[in-house]
Amino acid sequence: MKTAPGEMSTAFYTGNSMHGMFRDGDLLDLRAEPFDSLEPGDVVAVFDRDPHYVHRVVRRTADRAVTMGDNNLTPDKLELTPGSVFRLVYRLHTADGRTVEVARGRDGMRQFRRQQRKRRFFAVFTRMLSVFRPLKGLRIPAREASRFRDGSVQWSWHGIPVAVRKNNGRVVYLKWSRRMVFRVPEEGGA
């Protein structure tokens, strides 16, 4: 898959490692670039390994480039070299029709650091909330069920809407605070 510099192509994004920057189904515009033009903060699609992946360059030396997903904990083991097959991601087209230029260099590294801080914050927040997991059985059970034609069920407690169980079985609480106070019966309890 060797290409000439400047050659253009497109690919659809799927995965979680760059979530926050891209969403599943985004169309990425790719451009072949020489290895020497890469700098930390650039986003590249790497074709040296199957499955192919899209990650950000986080470190660069004269003959190596280290990549890492914005949501990953560690850098990739496979480093890019001048002989690697990759393309620069320079633009994306979202599902709602927007076209967005992908930040490079310093701006790209700022995005990377911001996403890493968010990931660490949510990891700590989730760990803190796990303390309350044993108290799950002490929450107030929502007992009033209203069924809808589409198969979903709205659960209430004394007229206060608490949550909706979608027809696919997923429970969505109407406010985050209600998740802490109320409990929705299991699927068979409806």
DSSP helix fraction: 10-25%
| Second CATH tier, the architecture of the largest domain | Ribbon
Shape: elongated
Major sheet details: 7 strands, antiparallel
The CATH topology of the largest domain, please? Umud Fragment, subunit A
Structural class, please? Answer: alpha+beta
Task: Give the SSE string.
Answer: EEEEEEEHEEEEEHE
Q: What share of residues are in beta strands?
A: 25-35%
The overall average pLDDT, rounded, is 88
Structural description of this entry:
The structure is a single chain. The chain is α+β, with helices and mostly antiparallel strands. It folds into 2 domains: 8-128, Ribbon (Umud Fragment, subunit A), CATH 2.10.109; 139-189, no CATH class. It has 2 helices and 13 strands; from the N terminus they run βββββββαβββββαβ. Strands 1, 2, 3, 4, 5, 6 and 7 form a 7-stranded antiparallel β-sheet that branches. A 4-stranded antiparallel β-sheet has the order 9-10-11-12. The protein is elongated. It starts with 7 loop residues before the first strand and ends in a 7-residue tail after the last strand.
List the helices and strands and how they pair.
Layout lengths: L7 E5 L14 E5 L11 E4 L6 E8 L4 E4 L17 E8 L5 E3 L3 H25 L10 E2 L2 E4 L5 E5 L2 E6 L5 E3 L2 H6 E2 L7
Parallel strand pairs: 8-13
Antiparallel strand pairs: 1-2, 2-6, 3-4, 3-6, 4-5, 6-7, 9-10, 10-11, 11-12
